[in-house]
Write a structure and sequence with these properties.
This protein is mainly α. 78% of the residues lie in helices and 0% in strands. The chain folds into 2 domains: 1-184, no CATH class; 200-320, no CATH class.
């Protein structure tokens, strides 16, 4: 029988800003984090796909190395941009997050190990570009799988966070912390939904590489453009299978939020569906007619809107699952406006700087070594 006291008491320290401010910051920072994470995870697997499924081995290796050379930077960005949303989760859902982390203590600890090993692996592969020997494909495969496992552990923790009624049984079954939330009905479709989305972003990654090489090597860029655009299309199409599987795995009350019980949730779902369909049609047209601007600006813009809808819907599902134990009005609030304004200015400046760095990262010209 579930003990309601298993959920720790709310932190008595007052929030330095209203609840909605932290909620908004959580959504915005997680949105930024999920973009880089999708480029990282999707790019890692798309690079392998380009190597294994390319008819021209030389061409496949070039695509492979063009992608993997950027993965260490994306891993660094993913970690950096993941700190803020993780902190905001601890502020708003701390008693749930810490408890679920303890229940799956050892897998959660191995997140650090897996990330560190994957980091070394990505750097090793990026340094092998243009060099003979080594086992870059094997190392890349191991690193990609480790990042895949990190995401799966995160899904286990955050899905368990939403079900305090299962903490006791799992902890008593394995008090040493060797637990995962594998009995959760939404776990696998939820993670598959995220992974397929990452593959779509990996396809966009290739589109940007193609655009950057369009004038320098048009033949190569066209092949990459075709492969990346089609990867985006097929992965987005697959979401129309995976998404309903995830929706059907949700509890009935939560499902009905997206069927009219919540106007916001229903509107977000419709925008997400329509945005996905429009993105597929536009990318198909861009691939067929080689419209770089459409593939490089319009489709990513629509995709960003769809991702933002998904982020907000994810938050709605979490709050629906925790409604019996979580009430935002219970937070004590003591607003510190001066500190908050300083934070807000620095935060906006940091986001702008990150966007400038990202633009230069993709558009920087290659420096050819000088001849003696």
């Amino acid at each position: 029988m579930f003990d309601p006291n298993i959920v720790p008491a709310l932190d008595p320290n007052p929030l330095p800003a209203p609840y909605w401010v932290f909620k908004l910051l959580l959504l915005v920072t997680f949105f930024l984090h999920i973009i880089t994470m999708n480029f990282l995870l999707g790019g890692a697997f798309v690079a392998l796909a380009a190597k294994w499924f390319s008819k021209d081995n030389k061409h496949g290796f070039r695509v492979f190395f063009d992608v993997v050379k950027k993965l260490p930077s994306f891993l660094a960005a993913t970690i950096t941009l993941g700190v803020a949303p993780l902190l905001f989760v601890q502020v708003l859902y701390g008693q749930f997050f810490y408890s679920s982390s303890i229940v799956i203590a050892w897998p959660w600890f191995f997140v650090l190990v897996f990330i560190t090993v994957a980091y070394y692996g990505f750097y090793y592969v990026s340094f092998r570009a243009g060099k003979e020997g080594g086992r870059p494909v094997l190392v890349q495969t191991i690193s990609a799988l480790l990042i895949f496992c990190v995401g799966f552990i995160y899904s286990n923790n955050f899905s368990l966070l939403e079900h305090p009624d299962r903490w006791g049984g799992k902890y008593l079954a394995a008090p040493s912390g060797w637990n995962l939330n594998l009995t959760e009905p939404t776990l696998f479709p939820r993670y598959l939904h995220m992974f397929v989305g990452a593959l779509a972003l990996g396809g966009l990654f290739l589109v940007y590489i193609a655009i950057a090489n369009w004038k320098r090597d048009n033949d190569y860029a066209r092949q990459v453009f075709q492969f990346g655009g089609k990867t985006f299309m097929y992965a987005t199409m697959a979401q129309f299978i995976v998404g309903p599987l995830y929706w059907m795995a949700l509890p009935r009350d939560t499902r009905m939020l997206f069927m009219g019980d919540s106007p916001l949730a229903s509107a977000l779902l419709m925008v997400g569906i329509m945005g996905g369909l429009v993105a597929i049609v536009l990318m198909s047209n861009a691939v067929r007619t080689e419209k770089l601007r459409m593939a490089g600006y319009v489709v990513p813009g629509i995709t960003a809107v769809v991702l933002l809808c998904m982020v907000v819907m994810r938050s709605i599902v979490r709050d629906a699952a925790l409604k019996a134990w979580f009430e935002p009005s219970n937070f004590a609030i003591k607003t510190q406006w001066s500190v908050f304004l300083i934070f807000l200015v620095l935060f906006v400046a940091g986001v702008v700087l990150w966007l400038v760095m990202l633009y230069r990262f993709f558009t920087a010209k290659k420096v050819e070594p000088s001849k003696p």
